[in-house]
Every structure is written in C-alpha cells, then in structure tokens.
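Lab notebook, bench 4. Still working through the backlog of constructs that have no structural model yet. Next entry is a single chain of 98 residues. Request: give me the structure tokens for it.
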Amino acid sequence: MKTIIDFIIKSSADPRATSLTVKAALLGLIPFIMQALDIACDFGKQCYDLQPSLFETIVSALADGTFYLLSLISVIGFVYGLGRKITRTIMGENEALK
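Model written out:
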C-alpha cells in the first residue's frame, strides 16, 4: 500500500518532490471551487429580469476564461505527469520506487 501511495504522490524524477500529476490535479480543483462559490452566491440573490451591466458581463467572461484556462492547464499537466511517471516506471527509472 505504501508503494502505491509513493507512486502517486512522489515525483518520479525526485522523490523528495511532489509529483506533477498530484499538483495538476490540485490545480484542477480551483476552477470547480470557483464555480461552487459562484453557485453559492447565486442562492443568496433574488432574481430579477434585469439585463446584466457591462461590468458584470466582463467579470463573467473573465471568470469563464480563467475557469477554462486553469482546467486546460491542469488536464495537460496531469496527462503529461502521468505519462512521464508510467514511462519512467516501465523503463525502471522511477526514483520514487527505489
């Protein structure tokens, strides 16, 4: 069990560091926390049939852009980190398992 945990958490290149896979997965949580906070704030508001102001539209667009950018970065980092970890393990170079 400890070997599995070490494989997931420790970096394959430097066992003293946290793996890129874990870092990217944690980064991927940020957009979902942002969405959850936005939903929680919406529950506290009363809904009116007013058009959103330009400021609200810009802030919403920036929030959406941030969400998609962080999601994309975390997916790329997670896939790259997992691929590197599997490749280094197959080649016998995974320092976390030594």
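Notes after review: The first helix runs from residue 2 to 9. The two ends are 15 Å apart (CA to CA). Flag for follow-up if needed.
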